[in-house]
TrEMBL record:
Ranges for region Disordered: 1-35
Keyword field contains Membrane: yes
Protein name: ABC transporter ATP-binding protein
Record organism: Streptomyces acidicola
KW Cell membrane (keyword) present: yes
Topological type in the membrane: Multi-pass membrane protein
Length: 620
């Protein structure tokens, strides 16, 4: 499966504990998802199940429409063999009846086809609407580890390019398929009824066409699967480059990126060419078979007309029927073209939708116990926790830690020590490989996601703002908050002053990813959002690293109020942040090597004292 986007998640710079994603090898394959057997058919059935009545109606309309269309050659046969001779005898009735019947069939065919298109179009759009919604909802429900290994560009490809392939099939291909099938049934029956031997020869000519179709399907399936993956690789590269345009410019990567993009673009071109070549082989082969069959039947039929064993009208009707059958063969090729493309896309979508969250919802969720004090803090316990990422070794060996309710704990250590992993386990972005993380004695795995998110909030290093106003971005912390609540949170965190200077104040549109305001201001908005959520546990994962010195000091002044009574875990590289903590944990290789009050550790001769001394010297 495959990716146009939201910013692709990083796995090294912003997340030092997570092993770098392996992107070696063929870019077509490294993000592929397995599709369970039968998943594609199950998905298609589930999409069509709510529309059974309308699907049946479209089939009925097409049956009637084809009956009206296929009556034409019978009327021609009757006109040649009966109506014209009667006309010569001055009996005009049969010929007039044929003309009226032909006109009525044409009108009925047009009206029925119009009705078919109206119903089918609504069915098609409802299917696509449902499918896009499923992809979007499912992608949001999947766990963080999925998004850290599956590029956002491929997700976008699933919901755009692949859904578009299915749209082409539904809009154009299915009608062609049903038309060809109905034509085959109607015409075979008519030919056999008109003349058994002539009909048998005509039906026998379908055998090489069937073999040709089977061969085309087999060859095209492989080509279209490669094409679907190729376009995703192009989209992924484009999205990745645009998301990283600043480092691209800073490190003059334009030429190198262009060369890499051209390689992927060329592969996409080649797979498109292979698809067209397969289509050309099928069309040419089908036309050769059709023309040989028609020529042979016409010659044999003419010989029988000459010796009086076959009526001329029957031969004319048979030729018309054969042309009506063989003419759609090219359109059948277009259907197969759309089908193979859609089948490859639907398989990739089914593979995506078959993914299950690695952090599942509990089957019988529990609720957190009532708070025992006026403050919102809750006790956090890491009980025998072990953890390893999917692509790397064990990050946390057996890990035990208790954080009393209301305590602010700073976690420091070198890159890769396990600090961010600790924070992600507490936020339940991941589940431990072994052991438990408890919140007031309740395993996080037993809490429903809404209950957990009300209790634990995380502010990350990169504050992400959505398009919309400042107020709307702060209100994400509590959607039912009033404007007064929003402003009160902003004032508490020190963001009110800069927000007031914006062109429209709290109603200023921050635009894509908050690009209208600075990185430090975005972080202040993120702090206000977290404060508005009023969590029991607040995790700050290097959340002040993007602030300048005045901004950091403003946030630190506010933190003494914001964190009061809450359980707080502060992941910090800047040791200035540690000054607000009640307790400091120093981590190395997934283990706590020092634990104590900041003043005690500074006065000691351990690892934290060395870090603190180096930090003081850097300030000097």
């Amino acid at each position: 499966m495959t990716a146009p986007t939201t910013p692709a998640p990083t796995t090294t710079d912003d997340d030092p504990d997570l092993p770098e994603r392996d992107t070696a090898g063929d870019p077509f394959d490294h993000d592929a998802l397995p599709t369970p057997p039968g998943a594609t058919a199950t998905l298609l059935r589930s999409l069509l199940a709510p529309m059974k009545a309308r699907v049946a109606l479209t089939t009925f309309l097409l049956l009637l429409q084809q009956a009206a269309v296929q009556a034409g050659p019978l009327l021609v046969a009757y006109a040649i063999d009966s109506a014209v001779p009667a006309f010569r005898r001055a009996d005009h009735g049969p010929l007039i009846a044929v003309a009226v019947a032909y006109l009525l069939c044409a009108v009925a065919s047009g009206g029925l086809q119009y009705a078919f298109f109206g119903v089918a179009a609504r069915v098609n759009q409802d299917v696509l609407l449902d499918l896009r919604g499923r992809i979007f909802r499912h992608a949001q429900a999947l766990s963080i580890d999925f998004h850290e290994r599956y590029t956002s560009g491929r997700l976008i490809s699933r919901s755009t390019t692949d859904v578009e392939s299915l749209r082409e099939l539904l809009d154009e291909g299915l009608q062609e398929l049903v038309t060809v099938i109905l034509s085959f049934v109607y015409i075979s029956a008519m030919l056999l009824w008109l003349d058994l031997s002539l009909g048998a020869v005509a039906v026998a000519s379908f055998v090489p066409l069937y073999a040709l179709v089977r061969m085309y399907r087999r060859r095209a399936a492989r080509v279209y699967k490669l094409r679907s993956t190729a376009i995703a690789a192009v989209i992924v590269k484009f999205v990745e480059t645009m998301n990283g345009i600043r480092p691209v410019r800073a490190f003059r990567r334009e030429s190198a990126n262009d060369a890499e993009f051209q390689v992927l673009n060329r592969r996409h071109e080649h797979t498109n060419g292979d698809a067209m070549l397969e289509m050309a082989r099928y069309v040419v082969g089908s036309r050769i078979v059709a023309n040989i069959a028609v020529a042979g039947i016409v010659l044999w039929g003419a010989y029988r007309v000459a010796d009086g064993t076959l009526a001329l009208g029957v031969l004319a009707a048979a030729v018309l029927y054969l042309r009506r059958l063989y003419d759609p063969i090219d359109r059948l090729g277009m259907f197969l073209n759309s089908y193979q493309s859609a089948a490859a896309s639907l398989e990739k979508i089914a593979g995506l939708l078959a993914q299950t969250p690695s952090v599942p919802e509990p089957s019988t969720p529990k609720e957190l116990p009532a708070l025992q004090s006026a403050y919102p803090g809750r006790e956090v316990v890491f009980d025998g926790v072990r953890f390893a990422y999917r692509t790397g070794g064990e990050v946390l060996p057996r890990f035990d830690l208790t954080l009393p309710a209301g305590q602010t704990v700073a976690v420091v250590g070198s890159t890769g020590a396990g600090k961010s992993t600790l924070a992600k386990l507490l936020a339940r972005f991941y589940d431990p490989s072994d052991g438990r993380v408890l919140l007031d004695g309740v395993d996080l795995r037993d809490l429903a996601v809404p209950e957990l998110r009300r209790g634990v909030v995380m502010v990350t290093q990169e504050a992400f703002l959505f398009s919309g106003t400042v107020a709307e971005n702060i209100a994400i912390g509590r959607p039912d908050a009033t404007r007064a609540d929003i402003e009160r949170a902003a004032k508490a965190i020190g963001a009110h002053d800069f927000i007031s200077t914006l062109p429209d104040g709290y109603d200023t549109d921050v635009r894509k990813r908050g690009g209208r305001i600075s990185a430090g201001q975005r972080q202040l908005v993120a702090f206000a959002r977290a404060l508005l959520a009023d969590p029991a546990v607040l995790i700050l994962d290097e959340a002040t690293s993007s602030l300048d010195v005045p901004g950091e000091r403003a946030v630190q002044r506010a933190m003494s109020t914001v964190l009061k009574g809450r359980t707080a875990v502060v992941i910090a590289h800047r040791l200035s942040t540690v000054e607000i903590a009640d307790r400091v944990l120093v981590m190395e290789h997934g283990r706590i090597v020092e634990d104590g009050a900041p003043a005690e550790l500074v006065a000691d001769t351990g690892r934290f004292a060395d870090l603190h001394r180096a930090w003081r010297e850097s300030l000097a």
